[in-house]
Amino acid sequence: MRAIFLFFGKIKKEILKFCRILFIGSGILNNELINEIRKSVNIVDVISSYMPLTKKGKNYFGVCPFHDDHSPSMSVAEDKQIYKCFSCGESGNVFTFIEKYENVSFLEAVKKCADLSGIEFSYGKSDRKNHNQDLYDIYKFASKLYQNNLHSKEGKEARDYLKKRKLDDNIIKEFEIGLSLNNASILTDALKKKYDEKTLIKSGLVSEGEYNLYDIYRNRIMFPLYDLSGNIVGYNGRIYNSNNKNDSKYINSKETPIFKKGELLFNYHRAKKEAREYKFVIVVEGQIDAIRLYQAGYRNVVASLGTAITKEHAMLLRKLSNNIILCFDGDSAGEKATNAAIKELANLAIEPKIVRLEESLDPDEYILKYGDKFKDKIDNALNIMQYKESIIKKNIDLSKTEDLALYANEMIKEINAINDDVLKEISINKLASETNLDVKFIKSKLDKKKEIKIPIKKNIIKYSKYEKSEQALIYYMLKSIDVIKIYEKKITFMPTDRYRKLALKIDCFYKEFGYIDVADFMSYINSDDISINALSEILNLDLNDSYDEEAILDYLNNIKSYNDKTLSNKYKKELKEEVSLEKKIELANKAIEYKIRSESNE
């Protein structure tokens, strides 16, 4: 049996080598190059460019982006260059993370890492054309046209307007601000030369009239809207002169296949790096607010494009930072938006800080009017309790008994909702000081009923001792080539299909490269879902990194015992069906022999 396995193992190895040689010219499946690229980047640096990580001990931890995680349950091991989530079981190397996070192919993930490290890597042109590529191309063309218009003779009035709004040339260039001319079809006519009418209408830049197609945006300053990767996918068109006096102040892009307002945050692609550096992110409502903050030096800013913060927005913000400052408009609508955002972020166990602006000003107006005073607002942003206290106090006169009672009752409701015991105690004492109420009295008014948390029963898989032995043996094969060599000598057959397949792949990897490394091995099996899932099971085992030979021998004996027991049962079954006496005796002897061998290994 072992000879058969070795034979097929050699065949498989030769096939793999042939495939790699075949594709080396295009860079595909060149494992040596792929491993070089993986080693050229640090998984901690790459993952922390997507989401915040905190060092605890020798590893880094973050909130897992692959399930609805409310606490940091994903561990990133810098020494092993792998990550794993202790909650959902996701695991992998730097390529796996990029694949799953950005929803790209393995080779696209390798290319991203190669670009980061400056290694040349090409995997040829993809046969799969992006079915929305025409829309992206249309917006690229429109952006160039609008920017040219702004800097043309016809764009002088618009340039003067932007200058009056104190938007400098660098910001205008960086945010690709442009101008749509007062012409009904200048963009449409240019695009019709290359794209069909259906595609133009789908883009959201062109509309269909009774007799012909025409430009949706005319005589407006054009502020681009970007997706998370920095591609222009929409526009806000703003009036700037008296020619538009009967029109809406803004025309906003309608939703298209590439533009979903509730799933995007303006300036996200620029803010990623800045949020990591400053360890917090500022959230505003409007695009102009974000541009104003950016020009004022707050480059870790994003905008929700005037919509309420959605679940998708909250998830994106969590990927930027756990420290979030909400700075919405200072009017009642801004207050309502702030309350809604607090609620949405609370679903992800995030408690933001809040900035409220006087005189009902928005951030753009506030910075233009008060300048550096805005920095004090950010530096002294309110925590949730301070914010709620300010809201409750807004229309209350604490010198009046009725208002004081109303304030105390409202604050007790808010204190009751606090989960942090320390913050709760501080808030109780503060309320007692403000209202002259006794601390014991306030505590007596708090709801003593604790929320009964029903533990969620996870689907815990119960493994037999034989399966546990297979898992442990593979675990240590990933740690040591000595264990791989023991496996080669002692094991003829792994009982469980997925573990047998995984063990054979580990053995093949070692034979081909002469070493074992978990992160490199993950790249080696990237297209084999069964082996990847089995590997995830193994990596999530709670086993020591070190091992002793006696334990390894125990695992081997258990596996051998299972194999012998299986063979004994096989011969017993054949014995029942056999009619020849001579053959019956032979099968009985074999059944007994393997049963004895099985019991001796127990």
3D structure, described in words:
By secondary structure, the chain is of the alpha+beta class. The protein has five domains: 34-117, Zinc finger, CHC2-typedomain (DNA Primase, Chain A, Alpha-Beta Complex), CATH 3.90.580.10; 133-257, DNA primase DNAg catalytic core, N-terminal domain; 263-381, Dna Topoisomerase Vi A Subunit, Chain: A, domain 2 (3-Layer(aba) Sandwich); 390-445, Pheromone ER-1 (Up-down Bundle), CATH 1.20.50; 465-601. The chain is 53% helix and 9% strand. Strands 1-2-3-4-5 form a five-stranded antiparallel β-sheet. Helix 2 (31-40) crosses helix 24 (518-524). The longest helix is centred in the C-terminal third of the chain and has 29 residues, at 549-577. It is globular. The relative contact order is 0.07. Mean pLDDT is 84; it is low at 1-28, 125-129 and 449-458.
A few lines on this structure:
This protein has 27 helices and 15 strands. The protein is of the alpha+beta class. The chain has five domains: 34-117, Zinc finger, CHC2-typedomain (DNA Primase, Chain A); 133-257, DNA primase DNAg catalytic core, N-terminal domain; 263-381, Dna Topoisomerase Vi A Subunit, Chain: A, domain 2; 390-445, Pheromone ER-1 (Up-down Bundle), CATH 1.20.50; 465-601.
Distance between the termini: 22 Å
Q: What order do the strands of the largest sheet run in, or round the barrel if closed? A: 1-2-3-4-5
The number of helical elements comes to 27
Provide the helix percentage. Answer: 40-55%
The strand count comes to 15
